[in-house]
Amino acid sequence: MAGSPHRLEQLLARADSPGTALRTIYDAYNDEEVVLSKEEIRLIQRIRSGRFPHVEARHHALQRLSCP
C-alpha cells in the first residue's frame, strides 16, 4: 500500500486546521499546497456555475461589443 503514510499525514494535518482544510489544494506545478482565500473560492464557484467570475462584470455591455 504505497502512499498510505503520506495520506495519513494529510488527514492528520487537515484535522489540526479545520478552518483551512477545505480551502487547501495541491499545486502540482509548483509542488506546494496553497490555501485559497474566500474570495478565490467565490470566483471558482461563479465560474463553475457558468457566471462571470466577478460580480461587477456587466454582461449586457459585453454582449453589445460582440454583436455586429
Strand line-up across the major sheet: 1-2
Proportion of strand residues: 5-15%
What assembly state would you assign to the polypeptide chains in this entry? single chain
What's the mean pLDDT score? 76
| End-to-end separation | 60 Å
Helix percent reads: 40-55%
| Element pattern in H and E | HHEEHH
The radius of gyration over CA amounts to 18 Å
Low-confidence runs of at least 5 consecutive residues: none
Number of domains: 2
Structural class: mainly alpha
How many E strands? 2
Q: Summarize the main sheet.
A: 2 strands, antiparallel
Shape: elongated
Number of helices: 4
Write structural notes for this entry.
The chain is mainly alpha-helical. The protein has helices at residues 4-16, 18-21, 38-48, 59-66, and strands at 24-27, 32-35. The protein has a two-stranded antiparallel ribbon with strand order 1-2. A hairpin with a 4-residue loop joins β1 and β2 (32-35). It is elongated. 0% of the residues are buried.
Helix/strand layout:
Blueprint: H1 4-16, H2 18-21, E1 24-27, E2 32-35, H3 38-48, H4 59-66
Antiparallel strand pairs: 1-2
Offer a few descriptive terms.
68 residues, mainly alpha, two-stranded antiparallel sheet
What's a quick, concise take on this entry?
It is built from 4 helices and 2 strands, in the order ααββαα.
